[in-house]
Amino acid sequence: MARMRFDLTLLLLFAFGSFLFFSAVSADLVISKLDRRIDLSSHIVRATTSLKVENNGAEAISEFLLPFPEHQAKNLALLTVIIVEGKGKSKVSSESLPVRIVNPKDSPPSLVWYSITLPKELGKGGSLNLEIKVALSNILRPFPEKITQADVQLIVFQDSAQVLSPYAVHMQSLTVKLPEPKVESYTKLENTKFSGSEIKYGPYENQPPFTYTPLAVHYVSNKPFVVARELVREIEISHWGNVQVTESYSLVHAGAVILGEFSRLEYQAQPHLRGASAFRHLIAKLPARAHSIYYRDDIGNISTSNVWGDSSMTLLQIEPRFPMFGGWKTTFTIGYGLPLKDFLFKSGGERFLNIPFGSPIDDLVIDNLTVKIVLPEGSKITSVSVPFSVKQSKQEKISHLDVVGRPVVVLEKTNVVPEHSQYFQVYYKFSNLSLLQEPLMLVFGYFLLFVACIAYVRADFTISKSSPSYLAKLQWDEVRSTIQQFEGVVNQCLIVHDKLQASLRDLSRTGDLQACKAARKTADSTLKELLKDLKPLISFLQSSPQAAQILPKVEELVAKEKELQEKIMQKHSIVVESYDKKSGIKDTENRVTALEQKIVLLRQEVDDLVDTIDEI
Amino acid sequence: MAPSVKPISSPVPIEWYPTLAFFMLSIGLVVTAIFFIYEATSSRKNRSLAKELSTGAVASFFLGFGSLFLLLASGVYV
Question: Touching check for B3 and chain A: CB below 8 Å?
């Protein structure tokens, strides 16, 4: 309470002082009507001021000054000013006007001045309707500061009944909206009314500039006071189809600190009486079509969560491992994947990522927010466009299948409220060919394995090149290669035999005698050549000592094959002859059947021999 | 006069990733088997370097792309 009084006296002192300094400058602009609405229903104080300013002076004014006491300016998270024209249904709002901090020469201390640049100069006698939205974080003080588990949380909000302005205000009113329709105590000034869950101060008429009447509202608020001391959001883009968002939170309950011990039994028996100031659930609104959502912390996965999805958004409800009482902290990580086509676009020659900036958790104040956007390897960042001021820097990150590393854009901001969850863009250049770099790297890796295999098989690592076992192995290798060649030749002979049989079948189908004779001729010549190839192989096998086992089989095979050849030739000649003589079918059949059977038998034996040689 | 804005998506439809991974890996493994059978059954004189390298190249191509799609299908978006 002592601190409160000190603040008030200080403010009253400079309020009178500054009136003397600024009366000359601000005599031109006059605020004719001002309506302020302060919303205390969450732990972020949102004040909406709609005012009508008139230019009563002779010069045109192009800027509008807005001062804030220092303790409020420190916690000012958002300040947007728009021009509103029309009333009711035909309301037209302009875009947010540029706001900057100025330092007027003779400003009283502990005031921060914001200057709003008007798009068009306000001429003499002109009037303008402005709407100012202010969001203040961390400005509500719990009072008492320490409560037990069974107490309700009481908050004190301090402000002024009249708006702090360098201009004279003809009529103003203030409405304070409380979260619940009851209040512990509030400053009773003139024209104060409390009804429902709203306290109305005003209307106050003809207030000179810098009037400041302090007021304090002491009320019950059991809304969750969720403050993230630190949040790191990492957005990783993969052109193969996914935007992966990983958020690591470090949350604290920034309300009244819990005093004494926490009784789980009492909390679970009567959660509303013994634990009204705690919160259990947090709701996060993720973009639609978010998939692969996980919620974990250092210990592991946290299973107390729920997901509901529809076509406009995915709702994630998470429950930390314990209910959060005042002063308690928790850390966790949330991750989810998003489809690429909702967030990555191509315009002109560049690609850009369009994604929300802040955290998806409802009503969260973030003290330090770091957003890292990781772009795929081989991309060149051109520009980043964020609708409010952030601190930018660049980093490198090495991730899956990376050679040089991925470029990272790091955006940092302090004092972030949910109103900052607007879309921002990162522009970069990337050629589609760079996408092939990853599979080609894998292909090259596997190819190196195969080359290593080839080198190993061809390398000769024997120490002594003249030992008998080594020489025997060499000889055996040679025998094996000769046998393989021999087998190749035999297979070719068999193929020729098959061709002859096929030509006979063709003859019976088409009756084309000439083709048959031609086939016979080619078969004869091929067989002669193959026989010639066979001779050096057999002579080598006969000369080498290692082939002693195989040689008899090989010779048997050659003999059988010769027999088979003869028989097939015989059959062929008989059939051709009978066709020539045009004797009946039955005749040819009789002569051929015996031969046919022998041919089949021989063929089988040849095949068996080939198999046995193969197995050796 | 604003340039047209088109959404970008992956070059291959995402639904195909598991199927592509399976088929490319199986073809790659079959060609690898052919390669190793050739290595095992051929003798020193008969081996042809061209055949070995070509089989190895085809096998590594299919294995490389197959393992890329396997990684993508299992959620590691490289």
Answer: yes
Interface of A with B in 288-347 (CB under 8 A): 292, 337, 339-342, 344-347
Nearest one of A41, A40, A259, A279 to A151, comparing CA atoms: A259
Q: What is the dihedral of CA A519, A523, A525, A529, to 10 degrees?
A: 150
Q: How many residues does this entry show for chain A?
A: 616
CB contact under 8 A, B43 and A477: yes
Q: Whole-model pTM?
A: 0.79
Min Cα distance B57 → chain A (Å) is 6
Q: Is residue A470 less than 8 Å (CB to CB) from chain B? A: no
Q: Is the dihedral of CA A155, A160, A165, A171 positive or negative?
A: positive
Number of helices and strands (H, E) in chain B? 2, 1
Q: Is B73 in the A-facing interface, judged by CB distances under 8 Å?
A: no
Q: Which residue type does B73 have?
A: A
* Token pair listed for A521: 């001729």
Residue A206 burial (CB count, 10 A): 9
Q: Assess A477–B contact: CB distance below 8 Å, yes or no.
A: yes
Contact residues for A49 (Cβ-Cβ < 8 A; gap 6+):
A34, A35, A36, A37, A130, A131, A132, A133, A134, A163
List the Cα angle A521/A525/A530 in 5-degree steps.
Answer: 145
Q: Which of A249, A251, A254 is CA-nearest to residue A225?
A: A254
Task: Collect all residues of chain B within an 8 Å Cβ-Cβ radius of residue A347.
Answer: 3-6
A346 contact residues in B (CB cutoff 8 A) = 5-8
How is the beta sheet containing A154-160 ordered, strand by strand? Answer: A141-142, A154-160, A214-220, A183-186
Strands (E), A376-442: 380-385, 391-397, 406-416, 423-429
CB contact B39 to A (< 8 Å): yes
Beta carbons within 10 angstroms of residue A152's beta carbon: 14
Instruction: Write out chain B's pLDDT in tens, 78 residues.
Output: 567 888 888 889 999 999 999 999 999 999 999 999 998 888 777 788 999 999 999 999 999 999 999 999 998 888
Q: Which of A465, A524, A471 is nearest to A493 (CA)?
A: A524
